[in-house]
Amino acid sequence: MWQAEVRVDLDAIRDNVAMLRARTSAEVLVAVKADGYGHGLVPAGRAALAGGATWLGVATLDEALTLRRAGVQAPVLAWLLSPGLPLHEGVAAGIDLGAATTGLIDELVAAARRAGRPARVQVKLDTGLSRGGAVASEWPALLESAAKAQAGGDIEVVGVWSHFACADEPGHESIDRQLAAFHEGLALAATYGIHPTLRHIANSAALLTRPDTHLDLVRAGIAAYGLSPIAGETYGLRPAMTARARVMLAKRVPAGQGVSYGLTYTTERETTLAVVPLGYGDGVPRHASSAGPVRVGGTTARIAGRVCMDQVVVDVGDEPVVPGDVATLFGPGDDGEPTADDWAAATGTINYEIVTRFGSSRVPRHYVGEVAR
Ligand SMILES: *Cc1c(COP(=O)(O)O)cnc(C)c1O
Predict the structure, then answer these.
(1) Is 33 a catalytic residue?
(2) What is the CATH number of domain 10-225?
(3) How far is the CA of 58 from the centre of ligand 1 (A)?
(4) CA dist., res. 48 & res. 258, Å (int)
(5) What is the mean pLDDT of the segment spanning 115-140?
(6) Could you say which of 3.40.228.10, 2.40.37.10, 3.40.50.1820, 1.10.150.240 is the CATH number of the domain covering 241-372?
(7) Ligand 1 pocket, residues with Cβ under 6 angstroms
(8) Bridge partners, residue 243, by sequence
């Protein structure tokens, strides 16, 4: 018996990935960083591989090593590496490591010698996002050090890649500009003798809207979890996560009753308040106060007043709600429940954040689907 649960439909992840795969001739990497966007690093990774992904992508070295420890043998790319990490562990585990500085190339050379095998490196170019990656003025030095380390047998430059800033806004002028800059970077890499087998820049949004960006590999995250990176489009994706809880308490209160901390919400008429045991300690954004939609019984109600650490109060009106009834915050929408998109709209954020907030949460995650067996 669960009091609250995050239900993850692994078959939905598998099927979404299979659908994405059918949209491209490039290899598909599925991003499983941040605990698989809240869906579970290892289970989401396995479901993605079952759907035909040939790569998994993570931010941190720890995430990559966790996949390996779980027995995942597929190629893994880790791209968020600060100086001073035990990179030799990543090299020994056969993890592809993203590198944007000559300092990291030096560390990778040392790591390769310690691990006794060449480091698999994917050089990251900043083409306009101004986040990770080397800026154009640094490309020659970075490519030269990578080429030198490759010639010395310490590293193997497997990939060259970049990341879009505005792929979720189809037609944004930066997309073409970044793609052109990336091609310039690849041409420059060739002059240093770097001919990577994996050239990649596309995320979910570019995978769905810009086939000319697919190149050798696409890196899909949000779409694999069944959510669209582009507002108002679903692309036939199926949301994999459902967050729900059983009503703990239901009570009839009169009009004019203040509700939850600060009494920021006042009942307009006699109504039923349902107390639902999920709060910001579980991943519910506090910005959902008096805003987040919840499906209880046959109605979609709103959170009444502030989201607390462990619970929320929902004003369900005259709906005959009793303790034990299921209150669904969001899911695929099959039974009229709100979606992560509805929650994003209600709380001023993006669907990515809604699902990711439930990662590594105290709420038990239950996996369903054939892939889970
Ligand atoms: C998270 C991430 C992705 C996936 O992005 P989505 O928009 O979720 O498809 C791809 N590449 C990098 C570098 C990322 O950090």
Answers:
(1) yes
(2) 3.20.20.10
(3) 9
(4) 46
(5) 98
(6) 2.40.37.10
(7) 31, 33, 79, 163, 203-205, 219-223, 229
(8) 6, 330
